[in-house]
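#dry-run=false #mode=assembly
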Amino acid sequence: MLKALRKIVRTGRVTEAAPLDAGPRPSSLPGAADQLRGSVQIRQVDAGSCNGCEAEFAAAFGPVYDVERFGVRLVASPRHADALVVTGPVTRNMSVPLIKTFEATPGPKLVIALGDCARDCGVFAGGDGVAGSVADVVPVDLEIPGCPPAPDDIVAALRRVVGR
Amino acid sequence: MVGVALAVAAVATLAAMVSGVVLSARRRVVWVGLLTALCAAAGGVAAVGMLAGGATVTASFPDLFPLGGVGIEFDALSAIFVLATAVVALPAAIYGIGYSAHGPSSRPVQAAWPLLVWSVMMVPAAGNVTGLIAFWELMALSSLVLVLAEHHHNPEARTAAQWYAAMTHLSLLSIVLALAVLSSNAGGDSFAAIRADSGHIGPTAATVVFLLSLVGFGAKAGVVPLHVWLPRAHPEAPSHVSALMSGAMVALGVYGLVRVGWDLLGGGPTWWGAVVLAIGLVSAMFGILHALLSSDLKRLLAYSTTENMGLVFIGVGAAGLFAASGNRPLAAVALAASMLLVVNHAAFKALLFLGAGSILTATGTRDLDRLGGLGRRMPVTAATFAIGSLAIAALPPLNGFVSEWLLLQSLVHSLPSDAAVVAVAMPVAVAVVALTGGLAAATFVKAFGTAFLAMPRTVEADQAHESPRTMRIGLIALAAACVALALAPTALAAPLQRVSLAVRGLDDGRPIHTNGVYLQLSGIEAGLSPLLLATGLGVMMVAALAVVRRGRIRRTVRDIPAWGCGRTVQTARMEYTATSFAEPLQRVFDDVLHPDIDIDVDHHTESRHYIQAIRYRMHIRDGFEHRLYLPLLAVVRRWGDGARRIQNGSIHRYLAYSLITLIVVLVVSR
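#status=ok
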């Protein structure tokens, strides 16, 4: 118990200080921040990723980057979600589940393509098991480039969506 | 009027039996059904006439039977059991027309069915020891024939019948002994004579009579540890027969116990009630645990009967305890609760057994793990089974709730001045009743959910179709009875008062007051209005629906399939089965149940890291059967083997036996 308390005191805060300005709001999402009013619930879908994007995405929710302080939360079901974050090229096996997840999400909803593979299939383009990019399967509202995108890029993009 | 109705019932039974023997197979089924229904209806009229204020009917037929002849004494206590029988038998007889058309339509079966209905109604109407024993044995034998009805294509029925025959005759033997001791000590055969003389029965004789009748009637009621025949015989009998056996015949065990222990003997020391209460507590827990874990639908219902009889025994035992410690008003409430539970149990258990019969005719199986999706294919069965499930789970606003509420009220309101055993037993009883209520809800969620909801698990379940019209009429009539008993238990307040007046050892004016819609217990600050409760629930449901409807008009609604984690195919193999639904609760009670679990894992031939097949087998043994009955049977078998040495087939030895016998006889009678 004492050991844990001492550790807490000695470590202090590890979270990066938030930049004052998150940058301009993306033009593809005109009213998103107004509708979301400072809070967005996200369901993440791995449509065939190498898990690099997942690692960085998870880091964005860790204690260092802590995107939750900007009102971004992960939820367990698309029924609870405002936005889907899709990673990876969409494989043939995952295209139907992705469409089902999209249908199961209540409107109004956003689809965010995370990483280069999600945008244009990256190095997997033309692969045998690849059905296409995320935009080929469901309508995409926002893209976050990078292979994989760095956690602070993810945080910045999500802050622009949520408007905080 | 009551006497005439009883006579009509007897004549209808005779006519039904004759038509069951002489008519052709197709017409036999119809006439037997209709005449049995008439018999049940006549019994119902007699019971209602009696409960509405008729005077006790007595009759005597001294030449009908050797010894004391058959006497009839039909009072309010008899009437409440005859009412329960009529509630079951009338719909069951009509249901039996459709059910027997596809199955048990042979002559012995069709002749035994009306006889069973009539004898179940006549056991409580018997007015002397000989009459009671005669009707009791008639009931036992006719039900035994009916348990064997389907033995041609179902060998299980034969073992079931053996167990049933052994247990029911153990019951008879014990009752005969009890009543013989009783009448020899009281100096009379008729109940009136015994009652008049009960003050002269010594405490030892009274205790012997009580214990023997507890064994005899307890075996019929199916309470622990004499329940072993129930989960065997009830599944194998035709469903309308199991409905009558489980709904009405089993309750006669309670009747006998109350009649002999409290009416004829006039009650006894405190420990009588405590013993009955303890048996009830163990039966209720044991029954519902095994019901929860059964995946055979009719076996589940049979175990649930043990549970419900346990609850009735709790009520009777509590009544005995209260009466012995001088709290007569509370004793009357407890007795009224158990009598109401008898009537309610008759209605919903018969309904559930008939529903199980419909499923059995439609799919050919009773195994819940092989059913599923029947709700859309058998809408009437599903709706009525749902009503029965709600009722048996004691959920408001259905009838099971009212009797369970009454029972709990009587247990909660024991006074601090009552005996110490009361102070200890009642909190335990309340806890057990509450726990069984919860487990019963889980059991019937399982039964209804796996049978009627989701996707069919087998081809048979997929191709199921609704039952013929006579069977649907039976189901709907019993569902209506459940609803009527739920909305208007106030109508039974006055009859229950008459019942408690009829039981000499427990009588106390008025257990329940009523002003039309409101049940008010006497001596307790508690009241309940089932009708207002149901109305309130109905209004709330309509209001909620109205709100949802209005919401629908304003917003756009998308119709999309249920979220299944994005899976592309859904098969019946992904569904919860009855076994898997009950598994978490089975783990909780592992220490009590000791299930045998076998897991076989077959590895792939090329690598042990890949698994080809996993087989999981779970079997829950009936602890009493395993530890009590099987050792007992082993001892009997060893004795039998010993006897074989005497009877070895050698004619010389038999001649020697005859010679020795002759010499012994000559010497003795010299």
